[in-house]
Design brief:
By secondary structure, this protein is mainly alpha-helical. It has one domain. It is built from 5 helices and no strands. The radius of gyration is 19 Å and the shape is elongated. The two termini are 21 Å apart.
């Protein structure tokens, strides 16, 4: 059966990938002025934002039982980073969507948007790093499956 921990682990990689590819498209578009790349970056940002929202709620459900003990500090760091990433990503997506919808393509706004998108990527990377530390350093969500030595057949 799939638990909230499994669901979070399965979902979280999609927004990371979508946002990073969207950022690369936007970066290339910034220098080469290709409308296709800029529009693709917007779509990837919106999809990545939706994935971030879903991953955030799956992560909250996954971390519900780990609010005390040795994981508390690491969990709190990851949760704060995830909250910052969530709101930063939503704000950036709304800014990009508004600029696209109102066809507001001034140079200074593109520079601010690119800097904001850069901040999103840094924030998402930090959140992912802290989540990786939870699993690989602290063993959060990891269940050890040891063999049953009481059974002589090893089953």
């Amino acid at each position: 059966m799939i638990s909230a921990t499994h669901l979070h682990a399965m979902l979280v990689h999609f927004p990371i990938a979508l946002l990073m590819v969207g950022f690369l498209f936007e970066l290339v578009s910034f220098f080469y002025k290709k409308p296709f790349l800029s529009q693709s970056a917007l779509y990837l940002l919106v999809l990545g934002t939706l994935g971030t929202i879903v991953s955030y709620f799956a992560g909250n459900a996954a971390g519900a039982g780990m609010e005390e003990g040795a994981l508390k500090k690491a969990m709190e760091l990851h949760e704060v980073a995830a909250t910052i990433s969530l709101w930063l990503t939503i704000f950036t997506a709304l800014l990009y969507a508004a600029a696209y919808y109102f066809k507001f393509n001034k140079g200074w706004l593109r520079m601010i948007s690119l800097l904001l998108f850069t901040t999103v990527i840094i924030s998402i990377a930090r959140t992912g790093y802290l989540g990786g530390q939870l699993v690989y350093k602290h063993g959060a969500g990891v269940e050890l499956a040891l063999p049953d030595f009481s059974n002589p057949n090893g089953k």
